[in-house]
Design goal:
33% helix; binds guanosine-5'-triphosphate; binds magnesium ion; Rossmann fold
Length: 199
């Protein structure tokens, strides 16, 4: 499935955020979990969001305009939890991300990504209740599903569902095989355009 999409702007601080003219979906997760790759797969455009083998590639907040009907923004947030960046760099990320998530009036939902092989860790266990308190709808997807055999993957899906106390199974997706990408995209479009209840 291909959806026309274009890069809008990168921001290192709130004064650079674009005006909140469209509803938006923020993609959040540990560094290297596959956020940028999945954004490309969801819209069917390789190279839209920059990906890398090196964790910590996305250091700015990047906005993409999705020309769906109705249109919305997808926001690629810098990954958290990458140990090898400097302490100062790590400390600058959290306030940037939290400021964005807590204050962005046009935020329609969050796509939280978790590596299928790592499962939910402290950051995710903290983050889901933090979003709940602010009534920000969250959709959870397990990335790199191709790295686990199907039976093991199903066990992980249930583990993450229980750990994060989700109302439905998290999606399992792979940008290599394409598995799960279209159903996830349909759900996200529904959440962002308020056509379906959050999960
Ligand atoms: N096997 C496999 N590898 C993947 C998948 N998705 C992403 N990757 C790889 O994981 C690495 C990181 O992908 P990115 O999309 O750059 O991850 P990111 O979360 O945007 O990383 P940061 O911007 O550094 O936070 C790259 O080497 C990708 O090729 C997947 O579904 N399967
Ligand atoms: Mg990235």
């Amino acid at each position: 499935m291909k959806t026309p999409a274009r890069f809008v702007i990168s921001a290192a601080e709130p004064s650079q955020f674009p005006p909140p003219t469209l509803p938006e979906l923020a993609v959040v997760g540990r560094s290297n979990v596959g956020k940028s790759s999945l954004i490309n797969a969801l819209v069917g455009q390789d190279g839209l969001a920059r990906t890398s083998r090196t964790p910590g590639r996305t250091r700015l907040i990047n906005w993409f305009e999705i020309a769906a009907q109705p249109p919305f923004f997808v926001v690629d947030l810098p990954g958290y939890g990458y140990a090898e960046v400097s302490q100062a760099m790590r400390e600058s990320w959290r306030p940037l991300i939290e400021t964005y998530l807590a204050n962005r009036t046009s935020l329609a939902g969050v796509l939280l990504l978790v590596d299928v092989r790592r499962g939910a860790q402290d950051e995710e266990l903290d983050f889901v209740p933090w979003l709940d308190e602010r009534e920000i709808p969250v959709v959870v997807a397990l990335t790199k599903a191709d790295k686990l055999a199907k039976n093991k993957r199903m066990v992980e899906v249930q583990k993450v569902r229980r750990a994060l106390d989700l109302r439905r199974d998290p999606f399992a997706v792979s940008t290599l095989s394409g598995e799960g990408v279209d159903p996830l995209w349909r759900t996200l479009v529904g959440v962002v355009t308020k056509r379906v209840a959050p999960v």
